[in-house]
Write a structure and sequence with these properties.
The chain is α/β, with parallel strands linked by helices. 46% of the residues lie in helices and 10% in strands. The chain has a 5-stranded mixed β-sheet. A two-stranded parallel ribbon has the order 1-2. Helix 7 (149-165) packs parallel to helix 12 (246-252). The longest helix has 17 residues, at 37-53. The chain is globular, with a radius of gyration of 19 Å. It starts with 14 loop residues before the first helix and ends with a helix. Bound molecules: 7,8-dihydrobiopterin (HBI) and fe (iii) ion. The site of 7,8-dihydrobiopterin has 9 residues, from helix 5 and helix 8. 7,8-dihydrobiopterin is lined by residues 97, 100-101, 103, 106, 116, 133, 175, 178.
Length: 298
Amino acid sequence: MSVSASSQPDEEAPWSETLKSTRADFTIDQNWAAYSEAEHDVWRRLYRRQCEILPGRVVPEFLDGLAALHMDETHIPDFAVLNEKLKALTGWTVVAVPELVPDDIFFEHLANRRFPVGRFIRRPEQIDYLEEPDVFHDVFGHVPLLANPTFANYMEAYGKGGLRALGRDVLHKLARLYWYTVEFGLMQTDEGLRIYGAGIVSSKSESIFSLEDPSPNRINFELIRLLRTNYRIDDFQQVYFVINNFQQLFDETLQDFGAIYDALEKVTDLMPPDLLEDDRVINVGSQVYAMTADDQNS
Ligand code: HBI
Ligand code: FE
């Protein structure tokens, strides 16, 4: 039983109020009416900016999903309205959460076709980057592809795989699959490389960097190779993995992951910029961006 979300927008609600409104599955009420005009305005700015640069850079399935869900720039979507359309299309719904939720809770939601989305939206001064997934990253970045039946199947399979993996100490390996596909994946299409990962789709600078910058490696997807590869959460990726289509991604989940985890125990992990002899490389990156960024951080 939850106390309904306070009448004040979350960022003004005392922490105890937000906690009280969180249920055992970490969901909260969206309380759409509590968003301020200033918060909707942040949505509008982000939405407009991405829709200016994504056509020709993002997979067509993403734009098809935006259209099918009638998502637009006018307001932060009302999840009740969004869910009616999304559920009818692929059985998925979004559930509001106050922040990142524990892995087991996250996997449980995905396995039941529920996608946890941050209720909050970033402040204007965070327009270009923020640590935690906010409603723009989650709803604009992730939800349109949940309207695609094959990708929707992949996301459910990932959730079920995550629940199975909880028993073994391999979550950090499985998280790499989510990271290098759902968050930062690229697809080879007849028109060229296209973005589908939500972490890229919701970022203006990385939408351009991931496709056009000579710095990162771009490697054809290979499951074990990907699962060996560490990732950075605080800067552009130094490697992107490329699939041919979403069916390929879903088919990968049909394998016996027990055997895959066994195989992973026999090989070393890799750092993001590492390359292997048998990598099916699309391009070897210069890594100039990372070296420059590291110099600035040192
Ligand atoms: N929680 N709300 C939320 N959103 C995420 O994307 C998320 C999460 N918890 C864990 C998590 N992602 C990653 O560790 C996944 O790889 C499991
Ligand atoms: Fe995300």
